Amino acid sequence: KPLGAGEDHWAPAASTNGSSASPGWKPSDLLPWATADNIDDYAEAMYEEKMEAKAAGAQKILRLCTDVQFLEPVSGHDTLMGVLSRELRENAKRSHELAVAITGIFACLAHFQQFHRCLTSNQCGEATMRVLEYESKRRTMLRKELKLHQGEMVA
């Protein structure tokens, strides 16, 4: 069954006061339409030259991962997890959209213990931690630059 608009199974988290913590949107509102029948096409997109094509393929895979029924086909695909891990290691600095989509895929899978072996064997956790370390350092540098520029503006 294709995952179309309004058909995802994303459950918004409830806040401690009983109201919905959801900002009024679902992942399907932000991610391109995808169907499990085309998972091979999305995997092939990871081999494209253009970062936009890779990011679009990863976003479609992430869209599938927002519905638990598609986690098994994603994790069980012959080459997908390995290529996602490699793309994250090699291209996270070149495409923020690609890095976000791939880490989102890994996060969806990490919620379920039966996928941990697949994530571990493909070094997905290590690749994700490298991206987090890089982004943390990058954020620290940007904050320092911002403070420096703010100080120059005041002086």
Protein model, in words:
With 155 residues, the protein is mostly helical. The protein is built from eight helices and no strands. It has helices spanning 27-30, 39-45, 51-65, 71-76, 80-91, 96-110, 116-121, 124-154. α2 (39-45) runs antiparallel to α3 and α5 packs parallel to α8 (124-154). The longest helix is centred in the C-terminal third of the chain and has 31 residues, at 124-154. The radius of gyration is 18 Å and the shape is elongated.
Number of strands: 0
Derived from helix and strand composition plus strand pairing, the structural class reads mainly alpha
Question: On the 0-100 scale, what is the average pLDDT?
Answer: 87
Biggest sheet statistics = none
- The number of helical runs is 8
The SSE string, one letter per element, is HHHHHHHH
Strand content: under 5%
| CA(first)-CA(last) distance | 62 Å
Low-confidence sequence ranges: 1-20
